[in-house]
Specification:
By secondary structure, the protein is mostly helical. It has three domains: about 20-390, no CATH class; about 425-645; about 655-700, no CATH class. Helix content is about 60%, strand content about 0%. The chain has 31 helices and no strands. Helix 7 (about 160-170) packs antiparallel against helix 8 and helix 25 (about 515-535) packs antiparallel against helix 26 (about 580-595). The two termini are about 60 Å apart.
């Protein structure tokens, strides 16, 4: 097992072009690390004594009163090994207050050490330069990850075994030292004995033997000191099987997933043995291959993923191995290279509810998202080998030439260039879901007081009266008097807000990938600007202004001190009215359809959506007329920002070239079959229309 630690400079990375820029970037990143570390320490130490270090209290009562021998697993709350309890036994004599600073700073130092060792174990950069210093980036990602955050609050030791294994595999050279480090790590988490298999299969049989010997010695020492507890752990609950609550969502192992699916008895055991055997075979086989290829950190990460998957219990704080799989390179195209790292970072830093919608069909995936990621990394993700050409030089992303209509005085971002190829679908879905979840939380956090919102409502009403735009009351009562119209507008208001924009995005992604990025980014900018409006100007909509006589056609008469708008009343911001994203998103749909649709009837149909939407938001008393004006303003600003930063929208000549003329690649066929623009528009140059590795004939 060759050490791949010499590829990064002593400071944690290869300098970027221009020494001053590299030094500044490194300093800023370490400042970010310092802020994250201090924030973690302050947040932890400000908690009341009974709300931190909960796992330590599971086996050792603070204040000098320890559990009697033989009762370590009496209530099943502690699932660690007897060796872990033995090593940490001196802490029984330490009070909780005295333990706080020492334990927290010690955990922080362990995290920094893991980041340093992992960064220096990355494969040697083969392109000559790295974008960012590796060490501070690695430490920052570790501090942000859910396993490390849980480790801090629970008082767990799960970072220590990871560090010991990394030192044994990536730093130590002597077989005895390597085996001793990994053996001690396995004494804390027995599933890590699978690293002995990795050592054996990569030709380090002495180190594998030492690993097994040190593990056996540590277990024997714990048995001698805690015979009753060791008998319970190894005989009654083999390697922790059945301790704590294995069916809890926090247990991200195959065993926990099978229990959550409702299986039990012999059937559950057979399924578990079959799944664990398959994961071990494919995962360890891939780990051995990547170790032989010189990607040692990736091999270690994959073996760790196999270990947490097959262990009887793998709590969230023990899944740090999944984050280390970002060391692997997946994707032959440059545009796909960041899909796996971004997906892993999102899974390891955000709650599962932010990653997947609250749909019952997706609950099995959502509840096991960390396990799914670990198994995918170990068995499925096609990481590239160092001998493959795309490992060092992925197929380049083709960008459009700079647009002639950009404003010359705008300091354009050098990396913001219009990409011509279709983005990766998985990454798009993840970012859209996470972006919308973050938008919902910020929107809720921006809720102002009722008094402020009503005062702003009176301001808007006065302005509309001065401008002769105060038509909401007349329209609202006219709708109420027309039963069918009221039913139609209520249905339109509650049903089409999300369906139509998502449909437009899906059609663009499939049929017009060159325009998809332009439209999607404009929508994102408009939504961010709308959030700023919600935050700065909370506004009560007409239906929440009782003295003005509006009728809430969707929800009916309300008690304004305790409104009821369904099960999500407590999780929505009722004062997020200015600007109206109901109208803004519908206007975005209309603009995109008018700009890209090839037929007149399609463009006219696209204009109906914003028309019906503005009728619905005013007729149901959910928005003021000026809210719609605000929605139009943020949409215009979104399109304007995209135009300034990335140039004009892509244009093409009418008429599709045949796939044979467009080239043999799949991307070329997709471009050739895309819906053309209406007649008379200028065609794109061959370099603008080309995707990665494709050629498109010149128009005309």
């Amino acid at each position: 097992m060759k050490r791949e630690g010499g590829g990064l400079a002593a400071a944690g990375g290869v300098p970027v072009q221009g020494g001053g820029g590299a030094g500044t970037a490194r300093l800023l990143l370490w400042l970010v690390v310092a802020v994250l570390g201090i924030r973690q320490l302050v947040a932890l130490l400000r908690l009341p004594p009974g709300e931190r270090f909960l796992d330590l209290e599971a086996w050792a009562a603070f204040g000098g009163v320890a559990r009697p021998p033989g009762e370590l697993y009496a209530d099943g709350a502690f699932s660690g090994t007897p060796f872990a309890a033995l090593v940490l036994s001196p802490l029984k004599r330490a009070g909780e207050q005295g333990l706080g600073l020492g334990w927290t700073f010690g955990t922080l130092l362990l995290v920094v050490a893991v980041g340093v060792v992992a960064a220096r174990a990355l494969p040697r950069p083969v392109q000559g330069r790295t974008v960012l210093p590796a060490v501070p980036v690695a430490v920052a990602l570790l501090l942000l990850s859910l396993p490390v955050r849980n480790t801090f609050f629970l008082g767990q030791t799960s970072v220590l075994p990871v560090l010991l294994v990394l030192l044994g595999c990536c730093v130590a050279r002597d077989p005895r030292a390597r085996g001793a480090l990994i053996g001690v790590a396995a004494a804390f988490q027995p599933a890590l004995l699978l690293f002995a298999v990795l050592l054996w299969c990569t030709g380090h049989r002495r180190a594998a033997g030492w690993t097994g010997g040190v593990f056996a010695a540590a277990a024997a020492l714990a048995w001698a000191a805690l015979p009753g507890d060791s008998a319970v752990y190894w005989l009654q609950h083999p390697a922790g099987l059945g301790l704590a609550d294995p069916a809890a969502v926090a247990n991200q192992s195959l065993h926990g997933a099978i229990l959550r699916l409702g299986l039990s008895g012999p059937l559950a055991l057979l399924v578990l043995l079959g799944a664990a055997g398959a994961v071990c075979y494919f995962g360890l086989r891939r780990a051995v291959r990547y170790a032989g290829d010189g990607q040692l950190l990736l091999a270690v990460a994959l073996t760790g993923c196999v270990a947490v998957a097959v262990a009887p219990v793998s709590w969230q704080h023990q899944l740090l191995w999944v984050l280390l799989t970002v060391a692997g390179r997946a994707g032959r195209r440059a545009s796909d290279r960041y899909v796996w790292p971004v997906a892993v970072v999102l899974v390891m830093t955000l709650p599962a509810k932010m990653l997947l919608p609250n749909m019952e069909l997706l609950f099995p995936v959502r509840d096991n998202i960390l396990l799914v990621t670990a198994v995918a990394a170990a068995c499925c993700v096609p990481f590239l080998g160092r001998g493959q050409e795309e490992f060092a030089r992925p197929r380049p992303t083709v960008h459009a030439p700079p647009g002639p209509s950009k404003l010359s005085w705008v300091p354009l971002l050098p990396f913001w260039r219009r990409v011509l190829t279709r983005p990766n679908l998985l990454l798009e879905l993840l970012l859209i879901r996470v972006g919308y979840s973050a938008y919902s939380q910020v929107r809720m956090a921006a809720a102002g007081s009722r008094g402020t919102a009503e005062a702003h409502g009176e301001q808007i009403h006065a302005i509309e009266q001065a401008l002769f735009l105060d038509i909401e009351h007349w329209v609202n009562h006219a709708v109420v008097r027309t039963g069918r119209l009221e039913e139609f507008l209520n249905f339109y208001y509650t049903s089409f807000h999300f369906v139509v924009p998502l449909t437009v995005l899906a059609v663009l992604y499939v049929r017009r990938p060159d325009a998809y990025r332009w439209a999607r980014t404009a929508l994102g900018f408009a939504t961010l600007l709308a959030l700023l409006g919600f935050w700065l100007y909370p506004l009560a909509p007409p239906r929440l202004m009782p003295e003005l006589g509006f009728i809430d056609t969707v929800h009916g008469v309300q008690d304004f001190s305790r409104p009821d708008y369904g099960s999500l009343t407590a999780f929505t911001n009722q004062y997020a009215a200015m600007p109206s994203l109901h109208f803004g998103w519908s206007l975005w749909c209309g603009v995109v359809v008018v700009a890209l649709a090839p037929k007149l009837w399609m463009r006219l149909l696209g204009l109906l959506h914003p028309f019906f939407t503005v009728c619905a938001i005013v007729g149901t008393a959910n928005h003021w007329v000026l809210d719609a004006v605000g929605g139009a303003a943020v949409v215009a600003a979104g399109f304007g920002l995209v135009h300034v930063l990335a140039g004009p929208r892509p244009r093409r000549r009418t008429g599709a070239d045949s796939p044979a003329e467009a080239g043999s690649s799949a991307e070329a066929v997709e471009h050739a079959e895309a819906i053309p623009l209406r007649e008379g528009e200028a065609g794109a140059s061959p370099s603008e229309a080309a995707g990665e590795g494709e050629r498109v004939p010149s128009p005309g």
